[in-house]
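Example (one chain per record):
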Amino acid sequence: MKVLWITYVMMPEVMDLLLHNDTFKGSGGWLQGSAENLIKYTDVNLSVAIVNRQINKFTKLQGNSIKYYLIPYEKGFDYISHCYDRYWKAINTDLEPDVVHVHGVESTLALSYIKAISADNVVVSIQGLAGVISKYFYAGLRTIDLLRSISIRDILTLKPVFYYKNDFHRRGYYENETIRSVKYIIGRTSWDRAHVLCENSEVRYFHCNETLRSNFYEREWKFENCLPHSIFLSHAAAPFKGAHQLLEAMQYILPVYPDTIIRIAGHSLSLDNSFNGLIRRTGYENYIRKLIRKNNLEDHIIFLGALSSEQMLEEYLKANIFICPSTIENSSNSVSEAQMLGVPLIASYVGGTPDMIPNEQCGILFRVGEHEMLAQAIMSIFRKSQSFNNSEMRHIAHKRHDQKNNAEQTYQIYKTIANNNQ
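Predicted structure:
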């Protein structure tokens, strides 16, 4: 069975083949883990097509067991463009895939392939839903505060925070067209299922959980190894990731726990006051800086920048609490990783997150905008974390992200699609 994956995520093996870089920093590790488990099936021949800005020309690479088709970014995938048609046709002729699996509908890659080739054997998996994200893009933020935070970069690029909300809204149009065009969809929460079936009631919906990065399956969080009163965030660059909620909650936490530290991974919202720092800063970063000054948090925040998979793992294990304060999520891989390790967890009650946190042993949920509830949840964990029992959390997470089970489900989905199109 010949399977073609299409993605815009650079996978670690590709980075190693191109740059000989073993310390890959990015989000592609989970995709590599899924691929490695899938190719254990001897009748699966897996190829991966990647469209990415780091690729300059159409290239074929052979990994250990996977063939890669590297496609230059060209006109991008925020709009429908026929510039990729020749690549899809070349790949289809070269491979003649039985199943084409497009990871995510936030871009136009799936729609581009469908228009150039066919939707008959295409399945798309839901990661996030851009159109829905646009509704909650800056939930909890006042328009006046966003206007007051517009940066020099926003003006020079003509891309203030409102542009990105509208960009997600526009991408949602193509996203919905993709959902209406396909026969098969893979999802993993009641939230994405509801949105998919409301858009296309005829689609065949398969439930399949994701496999995480391999190094998260063996380690375990223990209080004695963590930094007490430390909080870890995996993302803070976009308003819908909700970092501002935690910064607002800190005004209630510091009087009780004055040594609280927030450690933030991902794009660095640095406090660089140089000219270059000023030019690079977005409007949302300006807003975050204002909150830091307003709540006297300069000595309570550490921006970590981009981290490798191993560095992320160590940050989870070092944290007293992991928080996902997003204003919308489907099923956050960061929440899953924290649960796999057994890190005390708080997340906002949005999207598919409640499916992942069925009880307080698996995490605490709070309502978006309720900074007081978030503060109380944090202080509750600080008080109890020495006696925190993470066994149920880890059991549920390991069952949800079981590598063998998820690979088997994926394999059976592919067989169903291949058989239906013979």
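Caption: The domain at 2-154+163-211+401-420 is CATH 3.40.50.2000 (Rossmann fold).
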